[in-house]
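[Q] Does anyone have a clean structure-token version of this?
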Amino acid sequence: MALKSLLVSHDLATVEVLRPVLERLSVSVEVCSAVKAGSEILLAEKFDAVVLDCDDLQGGLSVLQTLRKGASNRNSVAFAVLNGKTDASEAFKMGANFVLQKPVSHLNATRCFNAALGFMHREQRRYFRHPVEMEVVILFNNGKELKAKTTNISEGGMAISYRGKFAKESISKVQFTLPGTNPSMEFKAEVAWADGMGRAGVRFVEVAQSSQHQLDQWLAQRMESAANV
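[A] Here you go.
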């Protein structure tokens, strides 16, 4: 799957440097020149990286500050582009992972994005959800069990469909076997959300290292297959 980035800036010279560097690293770039529109996009879409022109775009710093409070992009890799008004240390405190100083050179941009590439891939793996239907057993604290089916699974949890009702705090563990594998896995879990109509999201809260590795490898293979479609 291709990495996705949002570049919020109306500085044409900066965009002309940053965009081709990102695209050369196989990171797709969506450019937005206004803070309001950029904020709306961040509420609606998920990005692996967000590049914000913090000093020369009025309100740019506010986007950086609120980025970590949103549901979709709070873990995205954030780049603050500065022009002398904001200290780098201040930008880091506001949530930036990397800082670029204007005028941004091709060399500095390449070094910065190369250094961040591994973090972008890590973020992509974290939220990647693979659609899959498989049986899962929900274990409750009171010893009862409920058979359900997954609709998708990610590194940190799964969405399930089921018949019956359960309290959010009552889940203890989930048991399942990934398609194409043999060993059954058991994860300690909790309910992240439930709609009251037989659908819920389960969050993994404690996972054995061997099981996490197996799940990560399985998801990585599905990601690679999806990228080649």
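[Q] Thanks! Anything notable?
[A] The chain is about 35% helix and 30% strand.
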